[in-house]
Amino acid sequence: VQLQASGGGLVQPGGSLRLSCAASGFDFNRNALGWYRQALGKQRELVADITNNGRTNYADSIKGRFTISRDNAKNTVYLQMNSLKPEDTAVYYCNVDLRYIAGESDYWGQGTQVTVSS
Predict the structure, then answer these.
(1) C-alpha closest to that of 88 among 20, 23, 35, 34
(2) What is the pLDDT averaged over residues 109-114?
(3) Among 19, 30, 50, 84, which is disulfide-ready with 79 (CB 3.0 to 4.6 Å)?
(4) Residues 4-61: tens digit of each pLDDT
(5) Residue 76 forms beta bridges with which residues?
(6) In this prediction, what percent of the chain has a pLDDT beyond 90?
(7) Helices (H), strands (E): how many in the chain?
(8) What percent of the chain has pLDDT over 70?
(9) Helix, strand, or coil here: 108?
């Protein structure tokens, strides 16, 4: 299983970024995926997740500003982030939890840094 996250960077407050996570090595169409983030000195937290049929769930802190989506043809999950705030600064990780399958694990991408600063 590989999860390759990209799209992070430095952006001013109020700006936008779109993160992408290209997945391989598992049945993408049948699995939910999530975006998490970890700010310096804090625990990793769920940002948003999306089921295999497109149902979404968001953390309260980003509702109305971020949108998670998926392209099953491209095996890619996206996180569109608008109206970014300094408190959104963190390393963002994509995740797929395959532990419901015997012998499988919870998988994480390498993370992409998002810095919101003027």
Answers:
(1) 35
(2) 96
(3) 19
(4) 999 999 999 999 999 999 999 999 999 999 999 999 999 999 999 999 999 999 999 9
(5) 22, 71
(6) 97
(7) 0, 11
(8) 100
(9) strand
* Residue whose entry in the numeric block shows the structure tokens 């990780």: 93
Give the Cα separation of 26 and 77 in Å (integer): 14
The three-state secondary structure class of 62 is helix
| Element of type H or E holding 37 | strand 33-38
96: tokens are 């797929």
| CA 107 to each of CA 8, 16, 29, 48, 113: distance values in angstroms, whole numbers, following the listed order | 20, 27, 16, 16, 18
Q: What is the structure's pLDDT at 34?
A: 97
pLDDT given for residue 19 in this prediction: 98
Question: What residue type is 63 in one-letter code?
Answer: K
Distance CA 21, CA 68 (A): 11
- Residue 72 corresponds to which tokens in the numbers above? 């099953």
